[in-house]
Amino acid sequence: MLLGVQGGDVRIWLNRLRDMRFIRYFLASVGALAIDFGSFVALMGAGMNAMAASALGYTLGIIAHWLLSSRKVFHETVAHETMARTRQKALFVISALVGLGLTTVIVGIGSGSGIDPRLAKLVAIAVSFVVTYVLRSKVVFRSGTE
């Protein structure tokens, strides 16, 4: 028994913690998305082409996402040793580039097909969210990365 919690209860407790991590990731993503989408709309309003505005907005959002993810979402698995931390940052950047690529391609195809770029961006957000969460939780911030 661990702190008054029996075997089956431990699994439930661990699942709740994982769920809270997903909720924290979701909230961090909402904050980063506000920066991403707000920048995207502002840059398009200033006359920038949709693909470039999408890429720049995503880049600004990803900077915010690293700060939130490493401090509030995956803080218990952030590497502390310099080399491991550098590797983790590199993997985070790679996951961001995957998301950026998906976002840019989806917005480009959507707007090139006559779909409102904002709608295409919403589709890109959903796809990128799922893919980057899986990459970050299973690769970048997996337990034992120190």
Summarize the model shown.
This protein is mainly α and 146 residues long. It contains four helices and no strands. The model has no long low-confidence stretch (mean pLDDT 85).
Note the total helix count: 4
In angstroms, what separates the terminal alpha carbons?
Answer: 28 Å
Mean pLDDT: 85
How many strand elements? 0
Could you please describe the fold and organization of this structure?
This protein has one domain. It is 81% helix and 0% strand. By secondary structure, the protein is mainly α. The chain is built from four helices and no strands.
Index terms:
146 residues; mainly alpha; 0% strand; elongated
List the helices and strands and how they pair.
Layout lengths: L6 H39 L4 H24 L8 H31 L4 H24 L6
